[in-house]
Fold this protein.
Amino acid sequence: MNATNDTPDAGKPALVITGELTIFTAATLKQTLLDAIAQGGPDEIDIDLSDVSEIDSAGLQLMVMTKREAAAAGKNVRFVRHSDAVLDLIDLCDLSGFFGDPMLIRPTN
């Protein structure tokens, strides 16, 4: 798991998460996400999930926590560019409405 902060530009996410978003990376990533919310930056924070290779229920809980903590701080977090692994879990748990983030609609087989 790796999380990097990008300088917020037009169309550029504030945080990019790569690798696993699982129980094994949750503790480290939790603090990174809370720090991103706490920084005095923009009211909107984009988190790029395009390079998340694996996600489990702990990762999904981190996403929920991030949304709630941001709302409590008066900020809006948007998860963007969801990887297939993230989309599969969000679909499985029927949570796309909770997150309210723009997602690509994938064709069904």
Summary: Residues 23 and 58 are 5 Å apart (CA to CA). The beta strands are 2-5, 15-21, 44-55, 76-80. The two ends are 31 Å apart (CA to CA).
